[in-house]
Amino acid sequence: MPDFKLLGPTEVLDGDGHSHTPGGPKLRQVLALLALNAGKVVSVDVFVTELWGEVAKKAEIKTLQTHIYHLRQVLAGGIVATQAPGYALRVDPHRVDALVFPRLVDRAAEHQQVGDHRAAELVLRDALAMWTGPALADVRLGPALAPYATALHERRLRAQEMHMDARISLGLHGEVIEELRMLVAAHPLNENFHAQLITALSHTGRRTDARHAYEGLRALLHAELGVGPSFAIPDPHVRSHPGKEIRR
Prior knowledge:
The protein has two domains: 1-123 and 135-155, Orthogonal Bundle (Arc Repressor Mutant, subunit A), CATH 1.10.10.10; 171-248, Serine Threonine Protein Phosphatase 5, Tetratricopeptide repeat (Alpha Horseshoe), CATH 1.25.40.10. The chain is built from nine helices and five strands; from the N terminus they run ββαβααββαααααα. It has helices at residues 25-36, 44-52, 58-74, 97-113, 117-129, 146-169, 173-186, 191-202, 207-225; strands at residues 3-5, 11-13, 41-43, 80-83, 86-89. The strands form two sheets. Strands 3-5-4 form a three-stranded antiparallel β-sheet. A hairpin with a 5-residue loop joins strand 1 (3-5) and strand 2 (11-13). Helix 6 (146-169) packs parallel to helix 8. The radius of gyration is 22 Å and the shape is elongated. Keywords: DNA-binding, Transcription, Transcription regulation. It comes from Acrocarpospora macrocephala. Belongs to the AfsR/DnrI/RedD regulatory family.
């Protein structure tokens, strides 16, 4: 049974690691819709809306049937099934990385809720390692696929925040500073990453750097949103739980 990779460029790998990824852009759209709904039926109307942005007509339905035929040529084993009112991919959802990832994030959240930061950190490390680029990186995002990509992006950000939280809670302040600087640069209006960076700097004795980071955030938020930071610089002598007070 193949594995389906959507957390980055699309890829279909067989048990030997050989790629069976369809090449055409519309084939990849069809594949992505099926994989994101593994084990469920995707209606013809949803496919047509995604591919052509309009109500299903005879010509579009015929073209969709051709795409399904070619996809079946690529994915042997009868895993692309015809099932009213559309088609379904007959694979276990655990074969689809974009379906596994949210479940791992949920499991990590359960570990964090009971204070098991070590277990949370390990699960989140594995979950984030699944990403090789933006979700559905080489797939054209129509009206059906775009919400999936957005939701996965938000889940990835949340997982990165949780991972930093877990590592800071484990006392790994020095290890996370450079990663947090990169996250802050990539997501300058994300206060959680700023709060985590400032916490890490404060707890490694770099109070001046923490103050500069805080003032930089204050200036940015004032210029962009007309508001100030929603948190204060933490006291390094108090055990911190970074970001909890500013969750969205």
